[in-house]
Alpha-ketoglutarate-dependent sulfonate dioxygenase
Amino acid sequence: MSTATATESQVNEIVQKYQTLDLKNPPKSNSTIQVELKNPNGVKEGFGDDYSKYLPQSTKDRFQRHGIDISKGYPERPQSIPLFLDDAYKIRNQADPNYIERGVNADPEKKALFSKAKLVRNLTKYVGTELVGVQLSDLNDQELDELALLISERIVVFFRNQDLSPQDQLKIGEFFGSVEKHPLAAQVSGQPGVTTIWGKFNRKDKETDFKKRGGNLWHTDLDHEFRGPSLTHLHLDAIPKEASGDTAWTSGYGAFDKLSPEFQKFLEGKIAIHRSAHKYFDRDDVLAGGKHIEREHPLVVTHPVTGWKALFVNRGHTLRIKDLEPEESQTILNYLFNVLEKNLDIQVRFNWAIPEQDRSLGASAIWDNRVSNHYAIADYDDETDERHGTRVTSLGAPPVYKEGSKSQREALGWDK
Ligand SMILES: [Fe+2]
């Protein structure tokens, strides 16, 4: 556990601010003491709270079928959680020399992948495709490569009725890029990189409140990372009984194409600042409390596989546009968020439960984080509509904007 030096009055100040602090030594008058800092997010290490007894039956069955041991507790947290901002910044702060961009050389017609499907069903015109009759665990490298291409074109691809082990989910993620191992997130026991997505655990039995539960935000995962997620794979192994707990995605390609050519030109080459969801202490200013990681990315990005331009901002994490006055930045960002959020023709909403979903099996969504925002719709009840999932996130190359790249509509000739 890390320590920091502080005077008695500073300690009192910290204690008032962070009730979770443990004092290793009682303060002595006018002396300097060591305090033990707990992370500002209050996350416990290791197995922390054991929620294994609350696991939905279908999740327990999945874990048992595939040899996941939850006897020591569930879920598991990383053993050592970074406390300080400079340590958190250093995590994955450089390009991955072994990264291979999947999908670049894939068959544009995706014949191998599509021949395995009973049906290739587009859920909307521009966003979202379901592959019916395909088991993700059966796909070989060529088919996964074609899947990477399909996801980059369609934003998100769905698979129902899957018997997918957490281990196979991890393997698929590793094919797409190095798998993100979150420094704080709860994960499947013994499977670092397979993150637990579970409202009951995350909300810790807080009472559900209809008025507040819509308070989720459109966002992109981990966009504060230097080389953020390329593809994210969420597999729900417990699907709410009622038609609830949907997830929605919106297309960054489509949002960019909604803008006028003059405004597009203004935005191209601009830099936006993105912030982490979690906080860490500033080593030189512990009393300031937890601070977020902030990272710069191009506001318009060029997708490395399709070559299409996309808006890369989201209401959840994008703070400001570099070099603009604060009010200019906020006004423009708000407008861009609205374009992403309010145009239903560039969105898809996926109902995990219907149609044709066997609840003893799971369903998967794999999406491209580089060109989308998503929104988890929290209209389910943790007690009666159990919802549990595992998420594997593959990290890509740092986002870039390429001068001269085309938008989706331009490249596909949709406006001719
Ligand atoms: Fe998310």
